[in-house]
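Exercise 7. Predict the joint structure of the components listed below.
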Amino acid sequence: MGALRRSHAAASITVASVGEEVVLAGWVQRRRDHGGVIFVDLRDRGGLVQIVFKPDTSPECHERASGLRAEYVILVRGRVQRRSDETVNPKLPTGEVEVLVDEVRVLNRATPPPFAIEDDPDVDESVRMRHRVHDLRRAPLQKALRLRHRLFQAVRASLSDQGFLEIETPMLTRSTPEGARDFLVPSRLQPGSFYALPQSPQIMKQLLMVAGFDRYFQIARCFRDEDQRADRQLEFTQVDLEMAFVGVEEVLACLEELTVRACAESAGIEFPRPFPRISYAEAMARFGSDRPDTRIQLELVDLTDAFERSDFRAFRGVVDSGGIVKCLPIHDAEALSRGQIDRLEAMVKKELGGKGLAWIRVDGNGDWQSPIAKFLSEAERGAIAKRCEARPGSLLFFQADDATRANAILSRLRVDLGRRLGRVDGRDHELLFVVDFPLFEAAEGGELTYVHQPFVAPHEEDLALLDSDPARVRGTHYDVVMDGVELGSGSLRNHRADVQRRIFDVMGYGRKQTEERFGFLLNALESGAPPHGGFAFGLDRWVMVLAGAESLREVIAFPKTQRGQDLLLEAPSEAEDLQLEELSLRVRRPAQ
RNA sequence: GGGACGGUAGUUCAACUGGUUAGAGCACUGGCCUGUCACGCCAGAAGUUGCGGGUUCGAGUCCCGUCCGUCCCGCCA
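Solution:
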């Protein structure tokens, strides 16, 4: 580099700096060589500015500039000049000026990039992942990671200001059989034993409460060895927090304070307070989802009772076996063609495991066009028409299935169609709390199991139900939902060992099993545990929503593919025999 | 574990019912060009058609298997 040092960022060159001498450093975005004058777009971490090489200004620079190629790393010294009116580029923030170069140094050459470094490159994602360094040079990823940084800083500032202490917990920890599949780390010193990477710092933070830290937080990496999705990575980052001597209201107030400040400081988005609250039951009833996007102005209608004595077997059978019949009415739906309806039905069957997609279209004369109308009684037609407020132009989609699937399918249709048809209110973003989740749900074997995690405290007034009717016990669980994405969840925890034991009982854990797995936690609770509760945000998802991205891979510097590979490092990889030997491991390779 | 879509040059795509030497844009290389900004013009180089097997006189194309990417179900909170 010699003695020359960068004086300005590309984006900071404006008409105000005309006449100044500047030193810029960055990458060659593009070279436009006219034989005489040569233009180069210089890109650095903040932006782009045009630099100019003229044969009569500096023949040596001009000569060197003709050898520049995309992604070469260069350092230039030159003078900022205003562009003539005809040559101003309105597409560039720095388009009114340019830098006339009289010294250039090539700090490094570069192989041709595998794809163009531009905002919207037309390449397969696997190519981007394999060449992640080039990918990360693109403005959208630069922006996303800057947003991520600002969110981290704002979260830390808010929680620190609210009296929280940042405390780290171990990454090498113990496997617990609940929840997701663990990542295991073999122990060299204890042959045959394994650490587990944390799925979350849940138990550790409860222990910190028992230890008297009162308010704890951590930006913690978590690991879950499950199949991935656009919004799920094997490893991800949580803002984990816990507070003692609080009830639900204090936690929610803290979360409001945190999210409002963090969204404002990182993304400039303001939210009104208090946040709307919706119960789990209401969310499922109206939107078919426990993470509703209520900006979409379509709601579900329950028709189960109207088909209790129906002659329409497809619906009646479902109701008889405990299922539900629900409808998604869409008014003024003339834009949806028959072909589109058929495609929706195919998606429901193939992708979502639905039985089908019954529908009724009310035409301009008020007549019902529908494959199922002829099976419906007068009373049923009346009930449908009334509750769905059917009118000419209405299109009604039905699901008759067990509650979980019917809601899942209609919720998906609601979101897809609501967006496609523009049935949204004017808000760019929405934050809300979902509260009053049930504590237990029926598992496959008919037994009860926890809905979220086994440490959620029941509602105080439902404590008695733990013995009489546990399925009806409400938990103190709450979710924060932003734009239909679950940002995170939390609860009050069981600080009384007897309540925690009772909950393990209900889930059918034996006494011995309980002591073996959770003895240390129960002992801690018995040692003087204060009432406590907390929350954990999925930080990657939070950034994703703020960035308007479709996938976590757009907000994580080095993400993994759906099969859990890092295409850049080619991880995971096989271990050396020596490594395996030290760990007392033998690998059984699948048969040829 | 299951379903859907995709895999041909560095990259994005094309190649009819199986039929000459697998083409094109961008990128790349060389040349020309003093006001472009997706610069332009001329020329050139560039391929294990993901991999393996099969059918066939002949396979990018058909069949079987397998690997990889994305989305979804299951799983996961």
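Discussion. Chain A is about 30% helix and 20% strand.
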